[in-house]
Amino acid sequence: MIRRTLTLAALCLLAACGAPTPEEIAKATATDVQDLVRESITTARRVNTMQWYADLYGSLAKAQGNTPGTKPEIPDASTTDDSFTDYKTLIGRIFTEANVVERPAGAVIFKVKGVDLCTPLRGSGTASQSCIDEFDKLQFAVRASGQTDLALLVGPSRIEALTVQIRTKQSLTVGVNLAQAQQAIAFIDSVEKNFLNGITIAGAGALELKLQKNADLDFTWSASVLSDASVTVTDRDGIARKFSSAAKPWLSVRMESGQARLTATANVGQTGYQGLWSDVFGTTLRTPMEASLQGATASLVAQDGQPLKVTGVGLGPSTSTLTFGGTRVFSMDLNETSGRQLDVEVTLNSQGLPVWTATPGFALKLFFGLEALKNAGQSVDPHLLRSTYTYALTGQGSAPKVELLARTSTFRGGVRLLSGALSVASDSPSDVGRSFAMGSCLTSFSGASQNPAMDLFSSAACP
User: Fold this and answer.
1) Do the strands 200-215 and 218-235 form a parallel or antiparallel pair, or are they unpaired?
2) Could you report the per-residue pLDDT of 238-268, keeping only the tens digit for each?
3) Considering the domain boundaries, does residue 401 fall inside one?
4) Nearest 5°: CA angle at 328, between 327 and 329?
5) Residue 68 included in any domain
6) Which residue, 98, 260, 370, 371, has most beta carbons within 10 Å?
7) What is the rounded radius of gyration, in angstroms, for the C-alpha atoms of the chain?
8) Is 272 within the bounds of a domain?
9) pLDDT per residue over 203-246, tens digit each?
10) Residue 404's closest CA among 354, 361, 441?
């Protein structure tokens, strides 16, 4: 199974080649893909050395009362050399004139032989006949066309399982049509009788991964849901379905070495899961459940000499929920009455510790209704049976601002409210609200708690 998985991964990489002749395909793979990947790694290494990252990393160590250590490093691009050497060996076997089986208009189709996949990439070993027979039954092929466009084909009907586009010195794009991928998996399962072990899979929608070169040492990695996507798995336990609405990009990260800047954007659309409670929470409860996240958005810009900014932080246009047997047991809202988004700016104070400013403020509302779980025999905290808790950081004439305070011998570490106030509220008559005024210094709660959902913070003498 491991060898099959690794070989399928290698075939996916083969979609990074493509042109009318084997020689052009090999050149595109050997030169264009390796150059793009190596330069993107070099760019990431340079971004990793930017001052804003060193300052932020060091500030978190200071907050714990520690001396900043060495921040994590990104390996040099040369660490990919052995992998690309193996890759070139593999494509050298596959993209040959002898493997051409068809030349449709503007394209070339290559047969992918089991002997080419099973022969060790290093040394003088030979392929086992059982491995050769196993892969030959799957009838893999690769279609090359256009400006280095490639498709991985599976089975006698040549199901298009995956596509890759290479644009010289510009981009590398991998695409998957989930319905076609489902057909390919079904064919493999029909040949390899234990491949799915009785599981059936249904897919819909399209996904894309892309590496884009914008300029020298300026790259964007992105993932997109090109059309509403879902994967439904059916086994002896029932049906489980995961889905996500279209979003392009769904997630992107741009690294600009020359500008000493990193930009990251999340634009997750409505995303959910339908299945059994036991699938997710590891209990014996086989009750149907549904989790629905209405979205997740944020845009981060970090640049040397500038405050770190995270804008448009949100959880979608409406309430995110979790149900158990059709009953709502949890829900979540962020800034429900103030546009459902906030912006955060991070600077460093004179001690090198972070200061956060939240505009217009922060209000997180959490509903817990775990009575249904208690009725099903589960142990549940009584404060979570049916209560709504709201955690709010609000301004008083200006956006609320909070600074991080370092741990000392007399202070356990925490935050100071530079402006605005913090409140913790509940809709339960038995709960008493908590509030902390501007200027307060807070640490994590200590002592006997009446309600863990309310007792999150304690006031302390400021250091």
Assistant:
1) antiparallel
2) 888 999 999 999 999 999 999 999 999 999 9
3) no
4) 110
5) yes
6) 370
7) 27
8) no
9) 999 999 999 999 999 999 999 999 999 999 988 778 889 999 99
10) 354
The 3 state secondary structure assigned to the chain is CHHHHHHHHHHHHHCCCCCCCHHHHHHHHHHHHHHHHHHHHHHHHHHHCCHHHHHHHHHHHHHCCCCCCCCCCCCCHHHHHHHHHHHHHHHHHHCCHHHEEECCCCEEEEECCHHHHHCCCCCCCCCCHHHHHHHHCCCCEEEEECCCEEEEEECCCCEEEEEEEEECCCEEEEEEEHHHHHHHHHHHHHHCCCCCCCCEEEEEEEEEEEEEEEECCEEEEEEEEEEEEEEEEEECCEEEEEEECCEEEEEEEEEECCCCEEEEEEEECCEEEEEEHHHHHCCCCCCEEEEEECCEEEEEEEECCCCEEEEEEECCCCCEEEEECCEEEEEEEECCCCCCEEEEEEEECCCCCEEEEEECCEEEEEEECCHHHHHCCCCCCHHHCCEEEEEEEECCCCCCEEEEECCCCCCCCEEEEEECEEEEEECCCCCCCEEECCCCEEEECCCCCCCCCCCCEEEECCC
Q: Which among 208, 223, 304, 209 has a CA at the least distance from the CA of 256? A: 304
Q: How far is CA 95 from the centre of its chain?
A: 34
> Which residue's entry shows tokens 């200071």?
62
- With contact defined as beta carbons under 8 Å apart, do 420 and 396 qualify? yes
Has residue 119 been placed in a domain? yes
Q: What is the mean pLDDT of residues 329-341?
A: 98
What is the count of structural domains for the chain? Answer: 1
**In this structure, are residues 93 and 116 in contact, taking their beta carbons and an 8 Å threshold?**
yes
Nearest to 207 by CA among 142, 251, 153: 251
C-alpha angle with apex 242: 239 to 244, nearest 5 degrees? 155
CA gap 450, 425 in Å, rounded: 14
pTM score of the predicted model: 0.88
Give the pair of three-digit tokens for residue 233.
């798995």
Decide if pLDDT at 5 tops 50. Answer: no
Closest CA to 32 of 127, 194, 165: 165
Find out whether 172 and 166 touch, Cβ atoms under 8 Å: yes
Question: What is the Cα–Cα distance from 261 to 328, expressed in whole angstroms?
Answer: 43
- Whether residue 65 contacts residue 408, with contact meaning beta carbons closer than 8 Å, is answered with yes
Say if residue 96 is exposed, middle or buried (CB neighbours under 10 Å; 0-12, 13-18, 19+).
middle
Q: Which domain holds residue 232?
A: 1-248
